[in-house]
Specification:
With about 90 residues, this protein is an alpha+beta fold. About 30% of the residues lie in helices and about 30% in strands. The termini are far apart.
Length: about 90
């Protein structure tokens, strides 16, 4: 799998044609906090740079329907928040 040295990963399922096709994928993302971008752009917010890989390792981010990709980005945000919470509990 080509992960482009993304810092965070998790497994997820995506659907293509109205739920009739389900595929297991690996989601990789980098997270850039708001403070990191502030010196460059004063209107910046946090950034999630999200990529979706098939089981073969192909980048299928652009092949997904936009609604499904938006759902994956939301899952990445949830994954990141959960991970930070677990780190604070340790």
């Amino acid at each position: 799998m080509i992960d482009y040295k993304l810092k965070y990963h998790f497994d997820e399922f995506v659907t293509y044609d109205d739920g009739t096709t389900l595929e297991k994928v690996k989601v990789g993302y980098d997270y850039y906090p708001e403070e990191f971008n502030l010196p460059h752009d004063h209107n910046s917010a946090e950034i999630y740079d999200v990529f979706v890989f098939s089981e073969k390792g192909d980048d299928i981010s652009c092949d997904l329907p936009s609604s499904e990709f938006e759902r994956i980005v939301s899952e990445a945000k949830i994954h990141h928040a959960r991970m930070l919470k677990e780190q604070n509990e340790i």
